[in-house]
Every structure is written in structure tokens, then in C-alpha cells.
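During the second year of the project, the team shifted from modelling isolated chains to modelling whole assemblies. The rationale, set out in the original proposal, was that interfaces cannot be judged from single-chain predictions alone. As a representative example for this report, we include one of the complexes processed in the last quarter. Its constituent sequences, exactly as entered into the pipeline, are reproduced here:
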Amino acid sequence: MPKIVFISSNDDEHIVDVESGLSVMEGAVQNLVRGIDGDCGGAAACGTCHVHVDQAWVEKVGGPATDMERQMLDLSDFKCPTSRLSCQITATEALDGLVLRMPEGQH
Amino acid sequence: MTPLHDLTHDRELARTLPLADFDVSHPDLYQRDALEPYFARLRAEEPVHWCRDSLYGPYWSITKFNDIVAIDTNHQVFSSDHTNGSFVLDDTTLNAVEGGIHLPNFLGMDPPTHDVHRMACSPIVAPANLLRFEALIRERTKDLFDGLPVGEDFNWVERVSIPLTTMMLATLLDFPFEDRAKLTRWSDVTTTRPGYGLVDTWEQRTQELMECLGYFQNLWDERKKLPPRPDLISMLAHNPAMQDLTPTDFIGMLVLLIVGGNDTTRSSMSGAALAMSLYPQEFQKAKANRALVSSMVPEIIRWQTPIAHMRRTAIQDIEFRGKQIRKGDKIAMWYLSGNRDPEVIDRPLDFVVDRPRARHHLSFGFGIHRCLGNRLAEMQVRVLCEEVLERYSRVEVTGTAVRVPSNLIHGFIEMPVRLHA
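Output from the structure prediction step:
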């Protein structure tokens, strides 16, 4: 199972195993990672699983998957060039070790 | 005396009435809180339902949780733009039809203008501001409960829900504190029409809303002359993108902020008291384990569902769940029904303080129009819950609550409550 590293805005680190095929948000919620709420259940429609992808991983993870994701990120005060909604990132072995930072306000 | 209405007649009617004759928009149903039997049948038998006539003309009802998410996130087809009729079923609330006036605002806008207006307001609920507000909310909530009687009846809406939410709104706007009752009044006047006990004529409604505009124009002018401050009016007055705001745009935005920042949390706070009274074992569970407040708060907001519906307008023909929706049709997404959908929510009628995934509810909407102030609202309700759990052994609603006769504002006018030491 790929390990995903979540770092909160006050630098708390949570490393969780996420089953391949699940979304990274789903993995965070199952492991009670504070700051990843996933209120909409994975529809890219609430913005509560916003993450900043670590520079080293940007290429592997890619940019927003859909217009919906892009539009939701556009409305965030904490959007950065590597912003993603973690419900739109699928965990795979290729993402083992992925580092994601949570913006301020998600804790 | 039970706090609930007798729904025997509605249950029978909901079972026997032909579906073609269903109209879930009628304010009487909301006044006696009689919706659930009708919504239950629609969800089971015709979840996407055409009402051929109502006080607000014909409309589609969307009643299931996942269908509501699908409509709410498809703003390309299902518009909330004011040029298409805006976002509430009653056209008179936000449009210049019958006696209503035009109140455009970002909830009633599609992108790209929507994004500019929304983001001009969003910094007020930024994390740094929320941190700043929490101590203030705590202090006010403590003071308020210090002044409430124990063991005797009082009106919870008037003495808890309204004061707490109005003080918060006054703070967000840096509104003169001694005049804050005006905010509550303007909030109520916005979402009403003549004949429901608040205004007698359309002229009176217009005149009161113009008074609101005038009052805020003065505040804008004052703040514009001063250095920027962290209140909403100052933020707007100093925002380069907001300098061309017309008086119509300004009053439109104001009523959105006033209703959105006031009426909604007010209803959740009232619903909190009703839930705690009807489910005393759940109250005890949370009292014994305060960590449950984190799920109790979203559960209150789901259980109450302070906004019963949001409306959209189809801007093209589209087939949805086997029904042919035509361009121009009105669509009501009944959050109140979706939040009771047993396919998504286990035991949906019950208030369950330790509900798993309690945050998965529709009350804030989904997609680009999702509630801007949801974190602040949750904080206000959280502090309220914490103080109540700390102080009292029981919250008892001692008589029938008087509800707002509205298919939009799902709230209360009066709620007799007795607090027990």
C-alpha cells in the first residue's frame, strides 16, 4: 500500500497507508487525518480536502483533473500553483511517499 | 405538551394524493413542519418531480441526496444567475417582478463575475479572522447564558439564537452595535413577502430595504475615507474590483451577507435546542464525552437544514434521471429532503451526536456556491453546544415551536425552552 505523507499548516506530520485505487482524501478520512474533511464525499465540490503538492511530486501527480476541481481551487484563498483536491488524486504504487501539505485553515 | 405538530392528516394525504398533485413548496407545510411524509414519497416514487402549478409557478423538485449534488455541481446547465431568475423559488425575493425588487449578488451569479464578487468577501472568514472571533464568540455566549433563567420558560429564538447571530453579524460588518436589531429586521424583510406577518405591502418591503441601502452607503463612505480595516464593509470599500458597484449591486450583496450571515445560523441554533430536547439520550452522550461535539455540530446543521431549498434554472434542454427538463424550467433542490435520504444517511430522521461522517450533508450546498461562512457558522454552533453541555443537565422545549412560514428559511419564530440545572 502506498504511504502518503500529510503535513498540516503547523507542521504536524501524518503518514498513512492508503489502499491503491482509493482517493488520497478517502485514505486520509479513514485514518482520521485532521484537516482533510472530505465533506462532499469525493465530488470535488466542497474544497475541504485541499492540499499543496510537494514540488518533488508535482510531475507525477499532475494538475487538476476536471473543470470542477479547477473552479473549486480558483475560489480558495489558499490556492497555489501546486494546489489539488486530494479526492481527485488516486493512490497508486507510483505515488508511494507522496508529500502533501495542508493550507492554513484546514486543521 | 409535545413540541411537534400532529401530522396524522399529512401522512394520510402524502400516501393517497396523486403524485401529479404534489406541491412541496407551500409555506403552510413549513409552518407546521409537515414536509417529511411528502418528501419520503417523492424520494421513493418520483425523486425528480414536476409540479405543474404552485404559488411560484411550475417547478421541478430534486429530492434525493446524490441528485442534488449532481445539479448543484453542474452550474454550466443549472444556472443561479440573477439574469435567469436567481436562486430561490419565489421570484419576488430577488427579482423585480410583482412587487419585488432586483437584488443581484454573487450567489445569484455564474462565473466569471461570481468569482470576483465572492472573493471580495471571502477574506472576512479567513482562518486568521476565525481565530480572532473565537474568543469573542465564547465571551458573548458565556455572558448570554449567565443572564438566562434556569427552571423557567423563555423564548430561545429571541433570547439565544437572535442575539448571538446578530452580534456576530454586527461584528463582521463593524455595524453600530446599538443599531444591530436593524440587521435582524432587514434579514427577515428580505426573505418575506406581504401577508406573512412581517410586511403589509410591497412598498413597505422596498422602503425598508432602501433604508438598509442608505444606512450602508453611509458606512461605505465613512470606511472608504479611513485606512482599510478587517470588516466586510471596509474590505469592500477598499477593493479595486468593487469600485463600480451600483446601488442595486450593493443592496443585493448586502442582503446576501445579512441573510447568509444571520438567518441560517439562527435557525441552526434554534434547531440545536429542539434536537437536544427531543433526543435527551443523545444530549447525555455528548455531555459525557465532549469530543463528540465535533460530530454533534454538523449533525445539528444537517438535522435542522436551515436553508430548505436552493433554486436553479435550466439554461438548456437536458435529460436528468429520465426526465426531460426544458430550457427555462425552475428546479428546486430540496436540501431538507436530501438530508433525509435513507440511501445516503443512516436513520436520517434521528439526531445522532456520534454519527459517522456527520459532515457529509447538504446544508451548505456543494460546488462553487457552497456556503462561504460555513466554518464560522460551525464555530458559533460549537461554542453554543460546549456552553450548554457544560452548564445544564437538560434542555427542554416545553411547547409547540412557532415556525417560519417559508420554503427557504427553515427556522423558528418562537421556541419555549426551559433549562435544567
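The first helix of chain A runs from residue 24 to 30. Strands of chain A lie at 3-7, 13-17, 50-53, 83-85, 98-101.
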